[in-house]
Amino acid sequence: MSIIVSPSLLAADFGNIKGACEFINTSAADWFHIDVMDGVFVPNISFGFPIMEAVKKHCTKPLDVHLMIVNPDQYIAEFRAKGADIITVHYEACTHLHRTLQLIKESGAKAGVALNPHTPINVLESIINDIDVLLIMSVNPGFGGQKFITDTYRKIHEAHNLILARKATTLIEIDGGVTNQNAAQLIASGAKALVAGSYVFNNANPNEAIALLKGK
Ligand code: DX5
Ligand code: ZN
């Protein structure tokens, strides 16, 4: 399977969301990553449903929605109705993670779980078989353009081993500070999907940036 690249809308020009969607549609990108921040779970506020609607209207690729919010259960049905294909919640924001994942699956979306850099992989031992996408944060969530945390490689290995041991089908996705400098090692460690915001959208040649992330 070739590597999935999910450029993050957070680094795009919000004055031209249609243009960003058209770029995603025609590029080799696989998904479009949508970062929703509530100012409570993370110290930043990004955007919510109206922007999701605008993206859904123009984007033909799967919407990979990363919820950095408290009480995600309350909003899952609406994110699905607005066009989310993958809904990822934070382990740290869910008291009843199993219930939250069932809610996501019942909505018809794929269920993702994100882990902050300080959260060990082993907290997922009892739930890994219910997770479609494991989003390992390689920066502290809340902002684009931060420096990649290198302990991520070790966490990917550990996640990969857990997935194999449990015969799970979970796909490992990495988010934060991803560039052509670390993509190959992330993939060699077991990552199957890479999120990239500033590296793609602030690049003089975003199509080439996506190709480099895919190892082409
Ligand atoms: C950070 C977000 C990321 C962010 C990545 O909280 O989850 O998706 O957009 O941005 P870069 O690739 O610039 O680190
Ligand atoms: Zn994200």
Structure commentary:
It contains eight helices and eight strands; from the N terminus they run E-H-E-H-E-H-E-H-E-E-H-E-H-E-H-H. It has 216 residues and is an alpha/beta fold. Strand 7 (171-175), helix 6 (183-189) and strand 8 (193-196) form a beta-alpha-beta unit. Helix 1 crosses helix 2. It starts with a strand and ends with a helix.
**Helix and strand composition category:** alpha/beta
Distance between the termini: 14 Å
- CATH superfamily, called what? Aldolase class I
Query: Number of DSSP strands?
Result: 8
> What oligomeric arrangement do these chains adopt?
single chain
Counting H and I runs of at least 4 residues, what is the number of helices?
A: 8
The hetero compounds bound to this protein are: D-xylitol-5-phosphate, zinc ion
* CATH class category label: Alpha Beta
